[in-house]
Specification:
alpha/beta; Rossmann fold; six-stranded mixed β-sheet; four-stranded parallel β-sheet; about 40% helix
C-alpha cells in the first residue's frame, strides 16, 4: 500500500504540508504542526495483521526493521526511502519489572521503561532517528540544508550530534553554560558538533535557536518540529507490545518541554484508532518543583498558563519554564484523564535513591516521576492492583555527579536517607573480614 503522512495544524486549520518542507508552524494561525497519517489506508490491513507484522519485525535483522522505531515504519514515516534511514538501533529497550521497589509502595505490577538504554543514553534517540533520516532524504532530493541545529539541556544535543554524524550532516547545538553535566557536554563534542555554550538558561537558548532556524540552510531539531514526536510516540506502542498488546492502567512520565507527553498520547491514539487497543490508560506528568509551569496551570484547571523562570534543579534536563509543547500536552492530559504532580529536590533525590536500592540506577528526571508515583499511591489515586509504567527518560550514567553528591550528603536541602560510601581499609584479610562480617550482622 502507498501509505502517506503530512504536516497539519494541531488547531485544525485547513491545509497540509509535505513532511520534507521546512516548516514548523501553521502559516494560518501560528500554531504548531503535527504529522497526520492516512488512517483509512492503514486500516486496509487488519489490527491482527499489524500485530503479526510488528511482532515478526521485533526479532528481525532485516534493514531497517530491527530498530524499535523503524519496525513500525508505516506508522512513523511511510514515505521514507530505506537508504535514507539513519538508525543506531534505537528503541527495543528493557521494560524493567520493578518488583522490589513496587513492594515498598504496595504495588505488585510496577514497571520502569528504561529509555536510557539507547545509543546516546536517552529517549531523544527515538525521535532523532526520524528527524535526521527525513533531513537526509531532503538533502538527497535537493533541499539546500547545511546543518541541523537545536537548543538543549543536554540529551537532545547528544542525539542531534550522534545521528547527524552518522548521516554525514553538520550539526550545531546551543547549551546553557554550566547547566549540563560533563557527560552530556562531552557527547556532542565527541561527535563533532559545533557546541555553543550560552550565558543563559534553556529558554534563552530556545529563543535564539528559533531565530537561527529562520536562516537559509539551517534545520531545527527541537520538539516543536513534530518529526521528533513521530519517533517518540513509539514508546507507547512498544510498551503495549511488550505486554502482549495489553494496555497498562497508568503511565507516569517526566515533563520538561512536554513533547514526550504529547508523543505518548499520539502513540496511544493511533493504536486505538487502528483497533489494536480499546482501553485508555491514565497519564501523569511529573515536573520538578523548580520548573513546574504545567503543574501550576493544572492546579488552575488549565484555565490559565503562564511561563515561569525555571530555577536550579538536579533534574536539569527538564529545567524549562516555557515549554514549547504546553498546549499539546494539555490536550493529551484532557484526553487521558491526566494529572500533573511535582517533586521537590529532596523528594526526587530520595525516590531515585530508594529505587536504586532495589536494582535501578535512576536519573534525577526518573526520580521526579518516581516521587510523583509515591504521592499518587499515598493518596489512593493509583490503586494497589493497577499496572503502572514509569517512563525513565535517560541513563543514570549521565548523572554520576548527582549520585556521588547524594551519597556524600552534599546536595543542598537533601538529608540523604540512603547514603552509601566506600570503606577505606588496609590490604589485610582480617580487616576486610571484620568489615564484611560486621555489615552482615
Amino acid at each position: 500500500m502507498d501509505y502517506k503522512c503530512a504536516f497539519r495544524c494541531v488547531a485544525g486549520c485547513e491545509g497540509s504540508y509535505d513532511v520534507e518542507q521546512v516548516i514548523y508552524h501553521c502559516p494560518k494561525c501560528g500554531e504548531l504542526l503535527e504529522v497526520q497519517h492516512d488512517l483509512e489506508a492503514l486500516k486496509t490491513r487488519s489490527p491482527a495483521a499489524w500485530v503479526r507484522l510488528f511482532d515478526e519485525r521485533k526479532s528481525s535483522n532485516r534493514w531497517p526493521y530491527a530498530s524499535g522505531i523503524w519496525g513500525k515504519k508505516e506508522w512513523v514515516m511511510p514515505g521514507l526511502e530505506d537508504d535514507c534511514v539513519v538508525s543506531l538501533n534505537e528503541g527495543g529497550t528493557n521494560l524493567f519489572w520493578a518488583e522490589r521497589y513496587g513492594q515498598t509502595l504496595g504495588l505488585a505490577d510496577l514497571w520502569i521503561k528504561l529509555c536510557g538504554n539507547s545509543h546516546t543514553g536517552s529517549f531523544k534517540d527515538l525521535g532523532m532517528t526520524v528527524l535526521v533520516s527525513v533531513v537526509k532524504q531532503m538533502i538527497k532530493h535537493g533541499k539546500p540544508i547545511k546543518a541541523i541545529v537545536c537548543a538543549s539541556t543536554g540529551d537532545t544535543s547528544a542525539a542531534v550530534a550522534a545521528y547527524s554524524a552518522a548521516a554525514g550532516i553538520r550539526s550545531a547545538v546551543l547549551l546553557p553554560r554550566g547547566k549540563v553535566t560533563t557527560a552530556q557536554l562531552v557527547q556532542p563534542l565527541a561527535n563533532g558538533a559545533l557546541v555553543c555554550a550560552l550565558d543563559t538558561d534553556f529558554d534563552g537558548c530556545m529563543a535564539i535557536v528559533q531565530r537561527l532556524a529562520q536562516e537559509d540552510g539551517v534545520y531545527l531539531a527541537n520538539s516543536m518540529n513534530s518529526l521528533r514526536l513521530e519517533g517518540q510516540k513509539t514508546v507507547a506502542i512498544e510498551v503495549v507490545q511488550q505486554f502482549d498488546w495489553e494496555v497498562p492502567d497508568w503511565f507516569i512520565i517526566p515533563g520538561g518541554n512536554l513533547g514526550n507527553v504529547s508523543a505518548l498520547g499520539s502513540g496511544l491514539d493511533m493504536m486505538q484508532a487502528m483497533g489494536l487497543i480499546s482501553k485508555r490508560p491514565r497519564i501523569c506528568v511529573a515536573q520538578a518543583e523548580a520548573a513546574n509551569p504545567l503543574y501550576l496551570a493544572y492546579k488552575k484547571g488549565f484555565d490559565k498558563y503562564e511561563p515561569i523562570t525555571a530555577l536550579a534543579t538536579e533534574a536539569s534536563a527538564i529545567r524549562i519554564g516555557n515549554p514549547i509543547s504546553i498546549r499539546r500536552a494539555i490536550r493529551t492530559l484532557e484526553r487521558y484523564n491526566g494529572v500533573v504532580e511535582q517533586a521537590s529536590e529532596s523528594e526526587l533525590a530520595e525516590a531515585a535513591a530508594a529505587a536504586d536500592r532495589t536494582g535501578t540506577f535512576a536519573c534525577p528526571h526518573t526520580g521526579v516521576a518516581l516521587a510523583a508515583l509515591v504521592k499518587l499511591v499515598q493518596r489512593g489515586e493509583i490503586k494497589k492492583q493497577e499496572r503502572v509504567v514509569v517512563i525513565s527518560t535517560a541513563s543514570g550514567l549521565k548523572f554520576t555527579d548527582f549520585k556521588v553528591r547524594y551519597h556524600e550528603g552534599r546536595i543542598e536541602g537533601v538529608n540523604s536517607r540512603f547514603p552509601n560510601q566506600p570503606i577505606s581499609l588496609p590490604s589485610e584479610y582480617e580487616a576486610v573480614k571484620k568489615a564484611v562480617l560486621s555489615a552482615l550482622e
